[in-house]
Amino acid sequence: MKIETQRFGTQEVNESEIISFPEGILGFEGENQFIVIDPSDSTLILWLQSIKSPEIAFPIIEPQLLDPASQVQLLPADLKSLSLESSTGATTYNILTIPADIKYISANLKAPVVINSKLKIGRQIVLQDSKLEVRAEIYNQLKTAIASAKSAASNDSYRTRFEAQNSQANNNVAAKNTQANNEKANPKEVRPSPSNENIAE
Amino acid sequence: MLVLTRKLGESIAIDDHIKIVVVQIKGKQVRLGIKAPKETKIHREEVYQAIQDQNKKALDSSHQGLDALSQEFEEKK
Fold it and tell me: Cβ of B39 and A128 within 8 Å?
Protein backbone atom coordinates (compact mmCIF):
# COMPACT_ATOMS: atom_id res chain seq x y z
CA MET A 1 0.00 0.00 0.00
CA LYS A 2 1.02 3.61 -0.49
CA ILE A 3 1.08 6.20 2.27
CA GLU A 4 1.64 9.94 2.16
CA THR A 5 4.31 11.46 4.38
CA GLN A 6 5.36 15.05 4.81
CA ARG A 7 9.07 14.33 5.19
CA PHE A 8 9.51 11.47 2.74
CA GLY A 9 6.80 11.99 0.13
CA THR A 10 4.79 8.97 -1.00
CA GLN A 11 6.09 5.76 0.50
CA GLU A 12 5.36 2.20 -0.56
CA VAL A 13 4.63 0.26 2.61
CA ASN A 14 4.50 -3.47 3.06
CA GLU A 15 1.52 -4.15 5.33
CA SER A 16 3.53 -6.66 7.35
CA GLU A 17 5.81 -3.80 8.44
CA ILE A 18 2.99 -1.81 10.03
CA ILE A 19 3.28 -1.61 13.81
CA SER A 20 0.09 -1.14 15.78
CA PHE A 21 0.05 1.14 18.80
CA PRO A 22 -3.27 0.36 20.54
CA GLU A 23 -2.82 3.34 22.90
CA GLY A 24 -1.09 5.59 20.40
CA ILE A 25 1.83 7.74 21.49
CA LEU A 26 1.42 9.93 24.60
CA GLY A 27 -0.37 13.08 23.49
CA PHE A 28 -1.27 11.39 20.17
CA GLU A 29 -3.74 8.77 21.34
CA GLY A 30 -5.50 8.65 17.96
CA GLU A 31 -2.39 7.57 16.07
CA ASN A 32 -2.49 3.80 16.17
CA GLN A 33 -0.44 2.67 13.20
CA PHE A 34 3.16 3.51 12.41
CA ILE A 35 6.05 2.29 10.34
CA VAL A 36 9.76 2.74 10.93
CA ILE A 37 11.36 4.59 8.02
CA ASP A 38 15.12 4.41 7.52
CA PRO A 39 15.98 7.38 5.32
CA SER A 40 19.40 5.77 4.77
CA ASP A 41 21.09 9.08 5.36
CA SER A 42 24.22 9.54 7.41
CA THR A 43 22.62 10.56 10.68
CA LEU A 44 21.79 7.15 12.23
CA ILE A 45 18.32 8.59 12.88
CA LEU A 46 15.19 6.62 11.97
CA TRP A 47 11.61 7.90 11.81
CA LEU A 48 8.42 6.57 13.34
CA GLN A 49 5.93 7.63 10.69
CA SER A 50 2.16 7.59 11.21
CA ILE A 51 0.23 5.70 8.55
CA LYS A 52 -2.78 8.01 8.58
CA SER A 53 -1.22 11.43 9.28
CA PRO A 54 1.47 12.54 6.82
CA GLU A 55 2.69 15.27 9.19
CA ILE A 56 3.26 12.95 12.14
CA ALA A 57 6.77 11.47 12.16
CA PHE A 58 8.92 11.13 15.27
CA PRO A 59 12.70 10.99 14.87
CA ILE A 60 13.97 7.97 16.80
CA ILE A 61 17.27 6.29 17.56
CA GLU A 62 18.31 2.93 18.95
CA PRO A 63 19.52 3.60 22.50
CA GLN A 64 22.44 1.20 22.07
CA LEU A 65 23.92 3.57 19.50
CA LEU A 66 24.19 6.25 22.18
CA ASP A 67 25.19 3.94 25.00
CA PRO A 68 26.14 0.35 24.11
CA ALA A 69 25.44 -0.72 27.70
CA SER A 70 21.95 0.76 27.81
CA GLN A 71 19.34 -1.69 28.93
CA VAL A 72 15.69 -0.77 29.34
CA GLN A 73 14.20 -2.10 32.58
CA LEU A 74 10.70 -3.29 31.75
CA LEU A 75 8.25 -4.31 34.45
CA PRO A 76 6.35 -7.60 34.07
CA ALA A 77 3.20 -5.57 33.31
CA ASP A 78 5.05 -3.74 30.49
CA LEU A 79 6.15 -7.03 28.94
CA LYS A 80 2.66 -8.44 29.29
CA SER A 81 1.10 -5.42 27.56
CA LEU A 82 3.28 -6.18 24.54
CA SER A 83 2.74 -9.96 24.75
CA LEU A 84 6.44 -10.37 25.43
CA GLU A 85 7.96 -13.02 27.65
CA SER A 86 11.27 -11.23 28.09
CA SER A 87 12.85 -8.00 26.88
CA THR A 88 14.92 -9.91 24.30
CA GLY A 89 12.03 -9.86 21.80
CA ALA A 90 11.68 -6.11 22.11
CA THR A 91 13.09 -3.39 19.91
CA THR A 92 13.52 -0.12 21.77
CA TYR A 93 13.79 3.39 20.40
CA ASN A 94 14.20 6.77 22.05
CA ILE A 95 12.26 9.67 20.57
CA LEU A 96 14.52 12.57 19.65
CA THR A 97 13.91 16.29 19.61
CA ILE A 98 16.04 18.02 17.01
CA PRO A 99 16.25 21.79 17.44
CA ALA A 100 17.71 24.17 14.87
CA ASP A 101 20.88 24.29 16.97
CA ILE A 102 21.95 20.67 16.78
CA LYS A 103 24.08 20.98 19.93
CA TYR A 104 20.86 20.81 21.93
CA ILE A 105 19.54 17.62 20.36
CA SER A 106 17.85 15.54 23.07
CA ALA A 107 16.48 12.05 23.59
CA ASN A 108 13.56 10.99 25.73
CA LEU A 109 15.12 8.27 27.89
CA LYS A 110 12.25 8.27 30.37
CA ALA A 111 9.60 7.07 27.91
CA PRO A 112 11.05 4.87 25.15
CA VAL A 113 9.00 3.36 22.37
CA VAL A 114 9.10 -0.41 22.84
CA ILE A 115 8.03 -2.72 20.03
CA ASN A 116 7.33 -6.43 20.01
CA SER A 117 9.29 -7.11 16.83
CA LYS A 118 7.47 -10.35 16.05
CA LEU A 119 3.85 -9.30 16.64
CA LYS A 120 4.41 -5.68 15.55
CA ILE A 121 2.78 -4.13 18.60
CA GLY A 122 4.26 -1.01 20.15
CA ARG A 123 3.77 1.21 23.17
CA GLN A 124 5.45 4.26 24.59
CA ILE A 125 6.39 3.02 28.04
CA VAL A 126 7.05 5.38 30.93
CA LEU A 127 9.90 3.82 32.91
CA GLN A 128 9.90 3.95 36.70
CA ASP A 129 13.58 4.95 37.10
CA SER A 130 13.40 8.53 38.34
CA LYS A 131 16.92 9.35 37.14
CA LEU A 132 15.96 9.00 33.47
CA GLU A 133 15.35 12.31 31.73
CA VAL A 134 12.59 13.25 29.30
CA ARG A 135 15.00 15.67 27.66
CA ALA A 136 18.49 14.18 27.93
CA GLU A 137 21.07 16.02 25.87
CA ILE A 138 22.88 13.53 23.67
CA TYR A 139 24.95 15.62 21.29
CA ASN A 140 28.29 14.29 22.53
CA GLN A 141 27.13 10.68 22.56
CA LEU A 142 25.72 11.05 19.07
CA LYS A 143 29.02 12.55 17.94
CA THR A 144 30.86 9.55 19.32
CA ALA A 145 28.48 7.19 17.54
CA ILE A 146 29.03 9.11 14.32
CA ALA A 147 32.79 8.98 14.85
CA SER A 148 32.62 5.18 15.21
CA ALA A 149 30.62 5.03 12.01
CA LYS A 150 33.34 7.10 10.35
CA SER A 151 35.95 4.43 10.88
CA ALA A 152 33.87 1.86 9.00
CA ALA A 153 34.30 1.58 5.25
CA SER A 154 30.69 2.53 4.53
CA ASN A 155 27.65 3.40 6.55
CA ASP A 156 25.75 0.29 5.44
CA SER A 157 28.41 -2.16 6.42
CA TYR A 158 28.80 -0.28 9.69
CA ARG A 159 25.15 -0.71 10.52
CA THR A 160 25.06 -4.36 9.67
CA ARG A 161 28.20 -5.03 11.62
CA PHE A 162 26.97 -2.93 14.49
CA GLU A 163 23.69 -4.81 14.70
CA ALA A 164 25.47 -8.16 14.71
CA GLN A 165 27.88 -7.07 17.43
CA ASN A 166 25.17 -5.39 19.32
CA SER A 167 22.78 -8.31 19.46
CA GLN A 168 25.63 -10.37 20.81
CA ALA A 169 26.55 -7.70 23.33
CA ASN A 170 22.93 -7.41 24.34
CA ASN A 171 22.66 -11.09 25.03
CA ASN A 172 25.73 -10.88 27.21
CA VAL A 173 24.38 -7.87 29.06
CA ALA A 174 20.99 -9.54 29.48
CA ALA A 175 22.60 -12.68 30.87
CA LYS A 176 24.72 -10.67 33.27
CA ASN A 177 21.75 -8.60 34.36
CA THR A 178 19.65 -11.64 35.09
CA GLN A 179 22.45 -12.97 37.19
CA ALA A 180 22.91 -9.67 38.96
CA ASN A 181 19.20 -9.37 39.60
CA ASN A 182 19.12 -12.79 41.13
CA GLU A 183 21.95 -11.95 43.45
CA LYS A 184 20.76 -8.57 44.56
CA ALA A 185 18.15 -6.02 43.65
CA ASN A 186 19.06 -3.64 40.89
CA PRO A 187 20.38 -0.50 42.60
CA LYS A 188 18.57 1.67 40.06
CA GLU A 189 15.25 0.16 41.02
CA VAL A 190 13.87 2.37 43.77
CA ARG A 191 11.03 0.07 44.65
CA PRO A 192 11.51 -2.63 47.21
CA SER A 193 10.12 -5.99 46.29
CA PRO A 194 7.51 -7.46 46.35
CA SER A 195 5.52 -4.38 47.35
CA ASN A 196 6.65 -0.81 47.14
CA GLU A 197 6.24 2.17 49.36
CA ASN A 198 6.90 5.19 47.23
CA ILE A 199 6.55 8.48 48.95
CA ALA A 200 5.93 11.47 46.75
CA GLU A 201 8.13 14.42 47.53
CA MET B 1 -14.71 11.81 40.91
CA LEU B 2 -14.90 10.29 44.35
CA VAL B 3 -13.76 12.76 47.01
CA LEU B 4 -12.77 11.51 50.47
CA THR B 5 -11.59 13.42 53.53
CA ARG B 6 -8.62 11.91 55.38
CA LYS B 7 -6.63 12.94 58.44
CA LEU B 8 -2.91 12.57 58.99
CA GLY B 9 -1.97 8.89 59.19
CA GLU B 10 -5.25 7.73 57.70
CA SER B 11 -5.31 5.85 54.45
CA ILE B 12 -7.34 4.83 51.44
CA ALA B 13 -7.42 1.33 50.00
CA ILE B 14 -7.87 0.85 46.26
CA ASP B 15 -8.74 -2.68 45.19
CA ASP B 16 -7.14 -5.21 47.46
CA HIS B 17 -3.50 -4.33 46.99
CA ILE B 18 -3.12 -0.57 46.78
CA LYS B 19 -2.95 1.61 49.85
CA ILE B 20 -2.42 5.37 49.98
CA VAL B 21 -1.44 6.91 53.33
CA VAL B 22 -1.34 10.58 54.29
CA VAL B 23 2.19 10.73 55.71
CA GLN B 24 2.58 14.44 56.34
CA ILE B 25 0.62 17.65 55.97
CA LYS B 26 2.65 20.84 55.85
CA GLY B 27 0.90 24.05 54.80
CA LYS B 28 -0.19 23.54 51.20
CA GLN B 29 1.78 20.33 50.77
CA VAL B 30 0.64 16.81 51.43
CA ARG B 31 3.05 13.87 51.48
CA LEU B 32 1.51 10.61 50.43
CA GLY B 33 2.85 7.13 50.89
CA ILE B 34 1.78 4.59 48.30
CA LYS B 35 1.90 0.86 48.83
CA ALA B 36 1.23 -1.07 45.64
CA PRO B 37 2.23 -4.25 43.83
CA LYS B 38 5.53 -3.95 41.96
CA GLU B 39 3.85 -3.92 38.54
CA THR B 40 1.71 -0.88 39.37
CA LYS B 41 2.86 2.23 37.56
CA ILE B 42 3.03 5.29 39.77
CA HIS B 43 4.13 8.63 38.40
CA ARG B 44 3.56 12.25 39.24
CA GLU B 45 1.05 13.64 36.73
CA GLU B 46 3.68 16.16 35.56
CA VAL B 47 5.77 13.30 34.18
CA TYR B 48 3.04 12.43 31.68
CA GLN B 49 2.55 16.09 30.84
CA ALA B 50 6.29 16.52 30.23
CA ILE B 51 6.37 13.47 27.95
CA GLN B 52 3.37 14.68 25.95
CA ASP B 53 4.97 18.12 25.54
CA GLN B 54 8.27 16.57 24.51
CA ASN B 55 6.52 14.34 21.94
CA LYS B 56 4.95 17.46 20.41
CA LYS B 57 8.34 19.14 20.24
CA ALA B 58 9.86 16.02 18.66
CA LEU B 59 7.38 16.39 15.77
CA ASP B 60 8.69 19.88 15.06
CA SER B 61 12.20 18.57 14.60
CA SER B 62 14.14 21.02 12.54
CA HIS B 63 15.39 20.38 9.01
CA GLN B 64 18.14 22.86 9.77
CA GLY B 65 19.30 20.81 12.74
CA LEU B 66 19.19 17.61 10.71
CA ASP B 67 21.18 19.18 7.90
CA ALA B 68 23.79 20.33 10.39
CA LEU B 69 24.02 16.79 11.71
CA SER B 70 24.42 15.27 8.23
CA GLN B 71 27.03 17.85 7.43
CA GLU B 72 28.95 17.06 10.56
CA PHE B 73 28.92 13.41 9.60
CA GLU B 74 30.18 14.14 6.10
CA GLU B 75 33.01 16.25 7.48
CA LYS B 76 34.10 13.53 9.83
CA LYS B 77 34.05 10.87 7.15
Answer: no
The domain that contains A60 carries what CATH number? 2.30.290.10
| A187: closest CA of chain B, how far (Å) | 15
Shortest Cα distance from A18 to chain B (angstroms)?
A: 20
Inform me whether the pLDDT recorded for A119 exceeds 70.
Answer: yes
- Residue at A105 is within a domain: yes
- Specify if A189 maps to a domain: no
In a domain, A164, yes or no: yes
The ipTM of this complex is 0.76
CA separation for the pair B53, A157 (Å, rounded): 36
Which residues of chain A make contact with B44, given a CB cutoff of 8 A? Answer: 200
Give per-residue pLDDT as tens, A152-161: 645 455 455 4
**Cβ of A146 and B72 within 8 Å?**
yes
Each residue of B36-74: pLDDT tens digit? Answer: 998 788 889 999 999 999 999 999 988 888 888 877 766
Sign of CA dihedral A138, A78, A124, B19: negative
